[in-house]
Amino acid sequence: MLVDIHNHILPGLDDGAATVEQSLMLIANAAANGIKHIVATPHQDETYKNKSLIVYTKVREMNALLLEKNIPVTLYAGMEILLNESILDNNLLTLANSGKYLLIELPNNHFPPYLFDVLYKLQLKGLIPIIAHPEKNAFLLQNKDKVLEIVARGALLQITAGSVLGKNGRKIKAFSNQLLKEQLVHFIASDAHSLRHRPFLLNKAYEYIESKYSTDLVEYFKENAKHVLKGSEFYVLDTKR
Ligand SMILES: [Fe+2]
Q1: Which of 239, 146, 134 has the alpha carbon at shortest distance from 188?
Q2: Roughly what angle, to the nearest 10 degrees, separates helices 202-212 and 215-230?
């Protein structure tokens, strides 16, 4: 039973599924990947100002439809929150409403100077920040020391399945593998947007990681995603830093 903690499957909320039909096709794609539980994480940023209530409503509507269509997948509410200085003033939705894990997206091409300050404040509130796809951040790609510092300060890292498989280019694949090798990764997630361009590749990524690293590492990622669903904490593998 697989859990996906980062994707854009809810219809009409962001640059992911545009319609209910597209959403259902993506969810069927997830089911074919063996995914039974999906934490839906629409963008929350300047372009898509999704509020908690709309996410809850869409999740409830889609779950009713899945039941009706006999598709054995359950959706949970979450969001992918673009980091900004005033993030703490917003009504933030934790992953699966766990009250624990928060999915944070960094700006694509620079390192926000206030990152560690915000992470610390989130932690003071009892939240555990998960940084979405750090391997796609142009600054971090050149500054691995900052990745080490993010992890040392207690944030967790989520690498995207497509990055591991080379769908985001050679450099990002190499960086993803470097982070995997050094045990700096805590989750693999699909970040699925559409069947055509960014489908669910979770199973393929796990197969790749199993062949290149170990079954144990894959089990670790699968278990960690279940902890997010439950809002329970887990033992983080020691890094070689
Ligand atoms: Fe995303």
Answers
A1: 134
A2: 140
CATH code for the domain defined by 2-230? 3.20.20.140
Residue 25's pLDDT band (boundaries 50, 70, 90)? very high
pLDDT of residue 240: 52
Q: Where are the domains of the chain?
A: 2-230
Q: Ligand 1: distance of its center to the CA of 43 in Å? A: 7
Q: Tell how far the Cα of 145 is from the centroid of ligand 1, in angstroms.
A: 24
Instruction: Report phi then psi at 18, rounded to 5.
Output: -90, -35
Question: Measured on CA atoms in the order 71, 73, 79, 82, is the torsion positive or negative?
Answer: negative
Q: How far is the CA of 60 from the centre of ligand 1 (A)?
A: 21
Contacts (Cβ under 8 Å, ≥6 apart) of 83:
104, 105, 106, 107, 112, 115, 118
Tell me the CA–centroid distance for residue 201 and ligand 1, in Å: 14
Q: What is the pLDDT of residues 207-222, one digit of tens each?
A: 999 999 999 999 999 9
Cα(143) to ligand 1 centroid in Å equals: 22
What digits encode the pLDDT tens for the residues 179-207? Answer: 999 999 999 999 999 988 888 999 999 99
